[in-house]
Amino acid sequence: MFDYNTKPYKFRFQGEITVPGDKSIAHRAIALGALAKGVTQISNFTYADDLAVTAKVFQDLGAKIHTEISNKDMIIKGVDHQLQTLDRPLNVDNVGTLESLLLGVLASSTNQYQVVGGKYLSQRSNERLLKLLRGMGANYRSTTKQVLPMQVSGSNDLQGITYHQDISSAQIKSSLVLAGIYAKTKTTIIRKLPTRNHTEVLANYFGADVTIEPDVIVVHPGHDQLQGQSLTIPGDFSSAAFYITGALLSDNSQITLPRVGLNSTRIGLLNVAKQMGANITVENRSTKNVEPYGDLVIKSQKLHGTTISAEQVQSIIDEIPLIALMASQASGETVIEGIHDVHLQLSDRIRNMRVELAKLGIVMQLNDDTIVIKGQQEITVKDDVDSHNDHRIAMMLCIASILTDQPFKIKNIEAIDISYPGFIADLNKVLLVK
Ligand SMILES: O=C(O)C1=C[C@@H](OP(=O)(O)O)[C@@H](O)[C@H](O)C1
Ligand SMILES: C=C(OP(=O)(O)O)C(=O)O
User: Fold this and answer.
1) Which residue, of 75, 159, 247, 297, has the greatest Cβ tally within 10 A?
2) Sequence-ordered alpha helix ranges (H) in 318-409
3) Residues 16 and 96 occupy one common structural domain
């Protein structure tokens, strides 16, 4: 709906930006806080669009939620697993993580719910996840494609399952963990490749008993009395990634990003940047309220192409558009392997970033399972670009605009608010015209 006109200058980065709190952790903190008994206090909470949707859904389920937007605080009075009934649908909009978490949460409630969603989620099949949750004893009624809208009625006699992951999805794993907490027997998830582990880590913090080993997760029964907690959410690495990429690629840049989450399952872009020859400094490492964080200092550097293995893909899952941009400016060729193993929404993202980058003269080869990107591609604006309502594509295009003095329009820029309201204002604080 809104267009953004980029500037006819190249920029470099200088200064310091504190990125918003992690969206992925915040979804889980709301869900666990809502299910728990007592009060949960979340600090450094960012009131991004996706998180507003999650807060509304858990309010509809009976949690009392108060947000102090200016202080970035959220206070939740949980329902102690007594979810409220509702005479209207629960609406997850297009928030994929929420949809998965919610289907797991509702598995253990005997109430009847209708879950509806937006255009993307009315197309994203939940076949794999629902097969597993049905195997635990919950009921889901939907079309044969297993998409939203959906009727859900859970069970108070859920049984654990053993799931050998056929797809590496943090969302599916998280949904099973949230169902498994309330099951009568243990739930075992045998890992394919590592995925973000925020749900299991935070579930333990709230009082669940989840064994987390490199290759297997076990959710033990009998620890379903979750208790409200206080936690501070670290900065979102996926938001920091825009500044990291921009500063690496624009000459004479230096930027500091304080208190960014450094959970090893999330920081694949740092490892890829290192493989490409970058040297990124991490200072003041700490772990407060479970998740590790630290200050990142990034200076512009010459990068070279690399091969990113299928094992790495989950740790860069939301950063693929930025890595494609980075690869296009490095020397030599970059190959990203294992992209077959991603959700529909993310395959749309890969297709869309390819279409939009081509309008800036950056091309790539998209094969069934790999992306191949040649380096040293000059940005040449051929057309205006579009976010496709994808926040990560919108922000990646803003970073691309800094590397060229040819202006263009980014259509549907408001998608940025999904994870990072205020991104453009923050970005402008650390840009200097070259
Ligand atoms: O669990 C999460 O918070 C997320 C998991 C990933 O999706 P998949 O589980 O589909 O890989 C990721 O792409 C998404 O942005 C957030
Ligand atoms: C795809 C994303 O999130 P979700 O799956 O929750 O919509 C994202 O944040 O990039």
Assistant:
1) 247
2) 320-329, 344-358, 391-402
3) no
